[in-house]
Amino acid sequence: MSDAPIAIFDSGVGGLTVMAAIAKRLPQERLVYLGDTARLPYGTKSAETVTRYALQATRALMRFAPKALVVGCNTASAVALPALTAAFAPVPVIGVVEPGARAAVAASTGNGITVIATEGTVRGGAYLRAIRALSPEARVIQRACPLFVALAEEGWTTGPVPEIAASRYLADIFGSFDRPDTLVLGCTHFPVLAGAIAKAAGDGITLVDSAATTALETDRVLDDRGLRRNGPAHAPAFLATDAPERFARVGSQFLGREIASDQVELVDFGP
Amino acid sequence: MSDAPIAIFDSGVGGLTVMAAIAKRLPQERLVYLGDTARLPYGTKSAETVTRYALQATRALMRFAPKALVVGCNTASAVALPALTAAFAPVPVIGVVEPGARAAVAASTGNGITVIATEGTVRGGAYLRAIRALSPEARVIQRACPLFVALAEEGWTTGPVPEIAASRYLADIFGSFDRPDTLVLGCTHFPVLAGAIAKAAGDGITLVDSAATTALETDRVLDDRGLRRNGPAHAPAFLATDAPERFARVGSQFLGREIASDQVELVDFGP
Asked: Residues of A at the B interface (Cβ-Cβ below 8 Å)?
């Protein structure tokens, strides 16, 4: 048993979908969230830069002495997990890629898995490796959909713009005669666009959102180590490296409940 | 007369539209461009963070001993110009906001000016102040269009997605009976979307792109100080703070000519 919080890290507000899933599955846990809004998005940046930013930003979480770190950002999970694991040891570090890959392999009926993600995640190939490690024969198609991040951030989650964008990104994959049966939302921004994405993919496609499976994995890790908390519910804490009022405003729709801007602490890295 | 280069600074690749205009107007000048791709976009970040990033990034340009600094980024021009002017003194620093405001006031027939820009530029109100300083009675409407940045970066500059997006942002302004006559593209990303934007704005609207007017202003400043160069043409230099190959690929369409990825030097700020 441990009263320490679970720390959740993301480049911005997208990881709040992971936070929401963890809060739902583990309602008794204390949660602290950090969004590196001063340097978002990570998805178009190099692996070296993402790793450097992730290490620097997560340092602000160490003062909470968390019992686990969840990397609720696909790009950072895909490229910076080894560095973060080393920096936080012996605190367990949980990424979103492996749980997502496991859920995809479990869901697929054998006709192939498509992973949609940021440019950085696709280029890094982490989903491809994680899926192949579980299912060496799986047919995997990756597709970078960077505009989805901006659409989600702008709150344009329904209507013609996201639908046409989704169709432009996905029509060739899901219009083919051997269309995949499973579609992984490999970016934490994408679940808010699930409707438009599902419409573009068409009938009979299973959408895999790594938020729920990452919450399950977090539960399993805490259980394994005897780190679950049994105290009463505790208000979450939010940190952002820039523009806390924007974090609160845009973040509320990702978390699925209101965040007050005075609930968000600004973390300053200095010059 | 001075053989020193003109330095051009932007958060990413958008300022290359300004560079193209300067190269066209002043073909004999040496140009060096820096894109702060490690921290882009600036448009959603706070004034303090943008100023800090701009000061840090432009330091890399000082080794070229430039004779002028052009801030080819509306957000940085809107919030960081005083700090950059102080840091580079006595080297003149030229932003894009004032030339754009001057061109808008010159173009307007009196029915009002609309400025479209990033959230940061709109919030800072620099265009509003610059236009009012020149024309105190002018009716000015500002509108943040953050998705345009992502569309431009993605290369989705024509077709239904940018057109519907432009209509969603602009329909209420240009559908009104007292529609403005002038539309300022207050972000260096926007000129590549000019077709979709013009279509949404409708007939009889003058689009003002600050790139050409900033080139004119640069010419005037050099002329005033006797700093023009008369040597033969010189290949430009490109610096980026992250992902030089992406800079070259995406940047080529903003510059309007090919940039080879080995032409782009990576500038590392360290941890």
From this structure: 37-40, 44-46, 49, 52, 55-56, 119, 146-147, 149-151, 153-154, 156, 160-161, 164-165, 168, 242-243, 246, 271
